[in-house]
Design a protein that fits this description.
By secondary structure, the protein is α/β, with parallel strands linked by helices. The protein has four helices and four strands, in the order H-E-H-E-H-E-E-H. It is globular, with a radius of gyration of 13 Å.
């Protein structure tokens, strides 16, 4: 999304259309805009569509707002590929992010 896509932003209506497509199961949002991700999660709730956080600095916050998980690269020090981290796994995600922050 915008932060890493040269300013390109995909509007909510297009994301909803993509969520309806049987061959598209989700998307990664690397904008770091938690409010936008929260809006997209709300707009695609009725579909089996995964919204993934793509920015490590807001990973935990995105989970609390409904992101399915995340694919983040936090500098060169650590890669995270985290899926299935619904709100029930919030404590695990928080621990992981806190552990990473202590390393940097």
């Amino acid at each position: 999304m915008p932060s890493f896509a040269g300013g390109l932003s995909i509007d909510k209506e297009l994301v909803v259309q993509l969520a309806k497509h049987p061959n598209i199961i989700g998307m990664k949002d690397s904008s770091g805009n938690v409010a936008n991700l929260k809006e997209l999660v709300g707009a695609t709730t009725e579909y089996d569509f995964a919204m993934l956080a793509g920015t490590g600095s807001v990973f935990y916050e995105c989970l609390t707002h409904g992101a399915t998980g995340g694919i983040v690269r936090t500098g060169s020090t650590m890669r995270l590929g985290l899926f299935g981290t619904r709100l029930t796994d919030r404590a695990w995600a928080r621990h992981y992010v806190i552990r990473w922050r202590k390393q940097t």
